[in-house]
Amino acid sequence: VKGKLPSTPERRALMGRVRQMDTAAELAVGSALRRLGRRYRKNVRSLPGSPDFANKSAKWAIFVHGCFWHRHSDCRRTTTPRSNTKFWQDKFDRNVERDARNQVALCDAGFRVLIVWECQTQQAETALRDFFESRRI
Ligand SMILES: [Zn+2]
């Protein structure tokens, strides 16, 4: 991670909270996939962006994105810390750019890609079912 800021208790708390929410969201998507009977691998490093869930032979990939880090638009969780705004903005810009690049690379490789936003994990199962049905996977 480029760009250094001194670690403050406030920042550590924020990062910890964000990480925990990511984990909860991933658990919800994993169990929804199992209920739907979809086979998957987790954190597939051999694919662009290391999708959180993917099935290489069925050619689908799912990212579970934290709204804060990945900048879910029009979402109340997509806040920007008030201090060191430039540091954060640069970091967010890089994340968004990287996400877009990875999605394009996956699509070019013939993968169907779904983003599940952390704030939408309550409805993950519906979103996943729609994804598989509409893309005929
Ligand atoms: Zn969101």
Give the class from helix and strand content and strand pairing. alpha+beta
How would you sum up the global shape?
Answer: globular
- Taking strands numbered 1, 2, ... along the chain, how are they ordered across the largest sheet? 1-2-3-4
Query: Low-confidence runs (pLDDT<50, min 5 residues)?
Result: none
> Average pLDDT value?
90
H/E element sequence: HEEEHHEH
Count of DSSP helices?
Answer: 4
The count of strands amounts to: 4
Bound chemical compounds: zinc ion
Radius of gyration: 16 Å
Largest sheet: 4 strands, mixed
Strand content: 5-15%
Terminal Cα separation, in Å?
36 Å
How much helical structure, as a percent, in the residues?
40-55%
Give a structural overview.
- There is one protein chain.
- With 137 residues, the protein is of the alpha+beta class.
- It contains four helices and four strands.
- Strands 1-2-3-4 form a four-stranded mixed beta sheet, sandwiched between helices.
- Strand 2 (53-55) and strand 3 form a beta hairpin.
- The longest helix is centred in the N-terminal third of the chain and has 27 residues, at 9-35.
- The termini are far apart.
- The relative contact order is 0.18.
- The structure holds zinc ion (ZN).
- Zinc ion (ZN) is lined by residues 67, 72, 75, 77, 117-119.
- Zinc ion (ZN) binds next to loops.
